[in-house]
Protein: phosphoribosylglycinamide formyltransferase 1
Organism: Methanohalophilus mahii
Amino acid sequence: TLNIAVLISGRGSNLQSIIDNVESGYIPNACVSVVISDKRDAYGLVRAMNHGINAVFIDPAVYESKKHFENALLEVLEKFSTDVLLLAGFMRILGSNLIKAYNNRVMNIHPALLPSFKGLHAQKQALEYGVKISGCTVHFVDEGMDSGPIILQKSVPVLDSDTEDSLSERILAQEHIIFPEAVKLFAEGRLDVKGRRVHIL
Ligand code: GAR
């Protein structure tokens, strides 16, 4: 079985979509082994416990540097024999040791069509820019911010009546589809990374 670890910082609706698609068998031969949060009160930790999944809070405040925090994270990942690490609303940039250790095995979901609107509040950035189409992206994580090889993208229209909330909701519905789809492709060994391009076998 593929051991999936999920990193979160909050609500965890993308985590839920991964759990549901593992439980239904859509993502084959896989198990969510551990959910790790950098926020003590992240609701995603409750979701994990509701499904009998190990829920771990790693408090960044107790580590003297980013590197020490990263080492603590690595320890938990190793303890649960992690094969793939999913960033599902995790609001920090991972350090290079972790990225090297899990090269092409860390995936992130971002609420915009990368390379547009990297970083925080991507949906607000899209509205302010005035684009007519936005969407979401699943990509492998490299050492940059929202910059690794793109696995899947899905577009949604931006409507004149949209607020940050309404656009975020429309994008989120697509996130819940493409993130499990990308993990399924990974689980099936069908993602072939060639430089920046990810070919689907
Ligand atoms: C999602 O929209 C995700 O794409 C976004 O945070 C939200 C988390 O929701 N991630 C980022 O903005 C990463 N920079 P969730 O906790 O319900 O999955």
User: Anything to note?
Assistant: The pocket of glycinamide ribonucleotide is lined by residues 8, 10-14, 88-89, 91, 109-111, 122, 172, 175 (CB under 6 Å). The beta strands are 2-8, 30-37, 54-57, 84-87, 106-110, 133-140, 150-157, 191-194, 197-200. The mean pLDDT is 98. The first strand starts at residue 2 and ends at 8.
